[in-house]
Design goal:
Elements (H helix, E strand, L loop, with lengths): L1 H9 L5 H4 L1 E4 L12 H4 L2 E8 L2 E10 L2 E4 L10
């Protein structure tokens, strides 16, 4: 894990133009009990519309449609 974080930290920053758009996601196994939970519920990835409008939880809604879920509304406690 430390090697992966060091690699990530060494990468150059990405511009907002490069980040804007819809991004497909992939789970990274970490050993956490909730690993692969999002994928089982049809998690697609994330979407960046602007610096102030980012959707981190985009799911497959069926028929090729995508829907965004507001993580603040999820009933998950820390």
């Amino acid at each position: 894990m430390a090697t992966a974080l060091a690699f990530f930290d060494a990468l150059p920053p990405v511009s907002l133009d490069e980040m804007t758009g819809s991004w497909g996601g992939h789970g990274v196994p970490t050993g956490h009990p909730l690993d692969s939970l999002l994928e089982r519920f049809g998690w697609h990835g994330k979407r960046v519309d602007s610096p102030e409008d980012v959707h981190p939880l985009v799911f497959d809604a069926g028929n090729g449609a995508l829907t965004c879920i507001d993580p603040a509304r999820l009933p998950v406690g820390l």
